[in-house]
Specification:
Largest sheet: 6 strands, antiparallel, barrel
Distance between the termini: 43 Å
Strand order of the largest sheet: 4-5-8-7-6-9
Low-confidence stretches: 175-180
Strand content: over 45%
Structural class: mainly beta
Radius of gyration: 22 Å
Order of helices and strands: EEEEEEEEEEEEEEEEE
Number of strands: 17
Mean pLDDT: 88
Number of helices: 0
Number of domains: 3
Shape: elongated
Length: 232
């Protein structure tokens, strides 16, 4: 990500402007403010698509690109999952790419660690079972929650998959508005990893990096059972 040394709000367009303090990227960055998913990205780079077959996209050069970034052309977007050589990208989705100009977006990395959940009594050992994540917005393909306890501090993740309504024909009849829909407010169930089901308290982390997607995480519901004060 970019290191910014100075910034201000331009009253003319009501956008943030940042001056980079990175010697290798001496640019002034303008805030994106389209109120769409295209706001949720860091730096963007122009690329030239030469051809495309299936999920293989041939470009003029892959220099400076990385796995996890997003290729965009028009309204279609897809994540880069592999870069085999200096002119080839492997993307996640088979789309109708056209030879010509395109854009690659770098994601904004998000790392969070929530306060320990001891369920009101840190002196009692618990058996943690499930974590239900509450989202008021879930415009993503997958979302990883990490877990660790005072018994085991190695973070293990659980992948949450939202109920996404992508349009006509992609969901059961009656499950969405006529003509399609979006991944709106929902609760997504996740199982606590076996390594972290026992402890005095449970810690939850988020490590998310996906451009042109958005989420609104409102909280969690934890399911657990109190055991005893004895442990080894």
């Amino acid at each position: 990500f970019n290191t910014q040394g100075t910034g201000f709000v331009n009253p003319t367009d009501n956008k943030l402007y940042f001056g980079s303090s990175d010697a290798t990227t001496k640019f002034v960055y303008q805030e994106r403010k389209t109120y769409t998913n295209f706001d949720y990205a860091d730096t963007s780079f122009a690329i030239t698509i030469v051809s495309a077959t299936g999920t293989t996209v041939t470009v003029a050069s892959t220099a400076g690109l990385a796995v996890g970034w997003v290729v965009s052309q028009g309204v279609q977007t897809s994540n880069i999952i592999s870069i085999p050589d200096s002119t080839t990208l492997i993307v996640a989705n088979e789309l109708s790419w056209i030879a010509g100009a395109a854009t690659v977006f770098r994601p904004i990395p998000i790392e969070l660690e929530f306060i320990q959940e001891h369920m009101g009594n840190p002196g009692i050992v618990k058996h943690f079972k499930e974590c239900h994540a509450i989202f008021s917005g879930a415009l993503f393909d997958s979302f990883n929650l990490g877990f660790f306890t005072d018994f085991n501090e190695a973070i293990v993740t659980t992948t949450l998959i939202p109920k996404i309504l992508n349009g006509w024909g992609t969901g059961p009849w009656g499950s969405m508005a006529w003509g399609g829909g979006n991944a709106k407010a929902q609760v997504i169930r996740g199982l606590i990893p076996l390594q972290h089901r026992r402890g005095h308290w449970l810690s939850i982390t988020v490590d998310y990096s996906d451009a042109l997607t958005a989420f609104a995480l409102d909280g969690f519901t934890l399911w657990y059972q109190s055991l005893s004060q004895k442990f080894h």
